Amino acid sequence: MKRNRIIWFCLWVLSIVGISFKGGPVTYGFFALLTLVPVVSVIYLIAVYSLFHIYQELEQRFVPVNEPVRYRFILVNEYPLQFVGIRVRFFSSFSAITDLDDRTEYELRPDTRIQKETKLICKYRGEYDVGVKEIEIQDFFRIFRIRYKNREHIHAVVRPQLVKTDTLGGIELSDAVRESSLSRSEPDVLSREYIPGDDRRFINWNQSARTGSLMTRLHTGSNHQEIAIITDTYRYSTDQADFLPPENKILETVLALAYYFSRNNICAAEYHLADGLIRLTADNTQKFEEFYGFVSDISFTARNSHQLLYGSVMQRRDILESSMVFLILSSWDTDTALLLKALGDNGLHTVLCYISDSENDLPDLSGHKGADIIRISPFCDLREALGE
Questions:
Q1: Phi, psi dihedral angles at 168 (to 5 degrees)
Q2: pTM greater than the 0.85 cutoff
Q3: Are 55 and 76 in contact (CB under 8 A)?
Q4: What span, in angstroms and rounded, lies between the C-alpha atoms of 210 and 36?
Q5: 167-184+224-385: CATH class
Q6: Separation of first and last alpha carbons in the chain
Q7: Among 283, 292, 349, 363, which is least packed, fewest CB within 10 Å?
Q8: Sequence-separated (6 or more) residues with CB below 8 Å from residue 26
Q9: CATH code reported for the domain at 51-159
Q10: 275: alpha, beta or left? (left if phi > 0; alpha if psi -120 to 50)
């Protein structure tokens, strides 16, 4: 295209030189013709922009991550004007189109259409536009080219991938559950004043705050086996490129853990902030589809701060009396450090699943007892991250 512009400009300059030194109808006609070329090209581009249509169709509205879904688009020319040099450019940050690329040029003769069917793959959970992002058209002489946004986007609702795994970052989940549940007893409602030497795991922090002195719970001796999965729903960025990958991996990790527990008939509950602290359970694989739907619809927002999460968790006795906790988050601050410390002070073994692409920004857990950390990259295959 640049070459064509240079050729046209050189010819136009020569026509001016011809008029200046020679004149005559041929020279003036040649000059007029070359002068009209860009005008005709612009008019042609305006016509194509106004008359050209593109239609897209996705096989299903709800799309699972990393699962190919049938996708097609149709280029339509319903007018007695030939369209040349048309290119379509696809959204590529969060989705991919198989067997097609942005370099293909399409030409539509009058009253014709071109239909392409292929597969579309979404990379991350969330809601975003997929398919054709922009359209590029050029004139017959290939002097001008314009690119404009497609007016009819496909807005996909992408659900997280379900991964079946028995390990988490090299840790056997069965071993982690067995270790954390050793001699974990369920406290009774009754409490007494703390005596030096008592197990600090059973201090009743809520009652201690009310009375002003340390109170410890009495025990019934029954084992409490439920495992708590705490999901961080704080959105720390407004840029989709920043928040979509970690949010996707958070929910994938939640589903992988919950599916393991449901398959092995282990009681587990998931907690996340929405309008208050929401509790979800999947007692068995028959109910897991419903659980999957609820987890897929979890919303991340800047309102769900770590401070609010910390306060909500500390008010839930069922969490503080769990056999262990999986804490899944992608950002770290003083409030998450306080939450992890409070869980440890209540005698809970906590596995921190930290979603991060860098090993250098991992939080230091040396001061937190009973806590392990597992780093999971937001861009990796969860099967690899979980040790499969």
A1: -135, 105
A2: no
A3: yes
A4: 87
A5: alpha beta
A6: 51
A7: 283
A8: none
A9: 2.60.40.10
A10: beta
